[in-house]
Write a structure and sequence with these properties.
The complex is a heterodimer of chains A (about 325) and B (about 120).
Chain A: H1 3-23, E1 28-31, E2 37-40, H2 42-47, H3 52-55, H4 63-66, H5 71-80, E3 86-96, E4 100-110, E5 121-127, H6 129-162, H7 170-193, E6 198-199, H8 200-208, E7 218-220, E8 227-228, H9 230-249, E9 259-268, E10 272-281, H10 294-306, E11 310-316, E12 319-327
Parallel strand pairs in A: 7-9
Antiparallel strand pairs in A: 1-2, 1-5, 3-4, 4-5, 6-8, 9-10, 10-12, 11-12
Helix pairs in contact in A: 7-9, 8-9, 9-10
Chain B: E1 4-8, H1 12-24, E2 28-33, H2 36-45, E3 50-53, E4 56-57, E5 60-61, H3 63-71, E6 76-78, H4 86-89, H5 105-115
Parallel strand pairs in B: 1-2, 1-3, 3-6
Antiparallel strand pairs in B: 4-5
Classes of the chains: A alpha+beta (about 325), B alpha/beta (about 120).
Amino acid sequence: MNLEELYRLLRNAHVQAQGIIDTVPYPLLVLDQNLCVQSGSRAFFTTFNVDRDETVGKHIYELGNRQWDIPELRHLLEEVIPKSTAVVDFEVEHDFPSIGRRTMLLSAHRLFHPDNNSRTLLLSIVDATERRQREAEKDVLLGELRHRMKNMLALVQAIARQTAAAGRSGEEYRDAFLGRFNALVQAYDTAYTQEGEAELQELLELTLEPYSEHPTGVLVEPGPPVPLASKQIMSLSLILHELATNAIKYGALSIPDGQVRVRWTVEEASAPHLRLVWQETGGPPVAPPGSYGFGMQLIEFAVGRELGGRVELNYALAGLVVEIVAPLGSVS
Amino acid sequence: MRKTVLIVEDEFLIAIDLKLLLERCGWCVLGPAAAVEEALELLDDELPAVAILDVTLRDGSVTRLAEALRERHVPFVVASAYSRPELIGGEILAGAPNVGKPTEEHRLLAVLEQMVGA
């Protein structure tokens, strides 16, 4: 073998070694025993925006205005590495002058050598900033989801606790509870699945449909279009459920001849107002209830606080008349 | 001493539940208030013996109200689904007991009694 062939052989070996390093898809440095850079991967130079010629031969701490002179990295290279053959995914957070604050995962491996006496280090640097950010965002989202689930459970707890049990059989309690529970589920469905908007007419028909056992039981009279926001849908659904169950128990829907008419108008005063009237006729004689239960509180709260309006209950001899007046448009 | 409790909660079903529950147990309820401003106005009329606070209200975090209560020496408990309400509502909530959401009845009553030193 002549000198030229030997040179070509060595050169090919060198080119291949560098090629292997450059093929590694993440930043990688080859360091000698004094922590001086022998070589680096292309990914290293592009990621940290530094020049190959300015890097090779330099001590790692001196690179790029000493941007790698980081206490955690010093600790890793000077204290941890000498006592072990490999360190994997050592996390370093650092402000890099050219690329800003980053979370880097450093892994160092002693280069394999048949005689096991190598002092060369392979230092790989994986930028985990975005992965960490995504993980943090996911955690926030999961936390919010957990919070909402518990809120939902609190709503169910509220109706379970406030549905009257005294003087009722277990079955009666269950039916009353499930009636409210289903109203809540349906209200959520209507409020949050149709991109938060529904028409009043649609809501009335949907909510009162289960109570229209015979076709004349509940009559929804056609009225002007009233688009509703999620919150208004929630409140109105629950209010209508309370009115309907009350009518079935004590009011017009407790006998076959009774009827409920629901009608509404939009009043253009200074701001548009909805006037919704629930009128019962043909039922047994009515009297104001002796006690003031959860159902009534729910109606008053829902109208007063959620709809920002007021409700009037008129226990007329011919039947209960409920009138709800509430502002339309944005309700806080 | 009259057992008065201020309820601050913006979810109306939960607010009614707390109100009815506490009234049945002999408490006199102020509110429920759904917003910080509304609660502050109630404080102008009467100071409760204790307050139950939700962390996020209609007009934002409960922090300002918690500070106002502390100034007036009104003890408060937090009723929150967050395991660490102080991360949302600020350090002022850190020392307050969290009766949780959903709120277990016996624990709520026990904590309130303890707060008013009954």
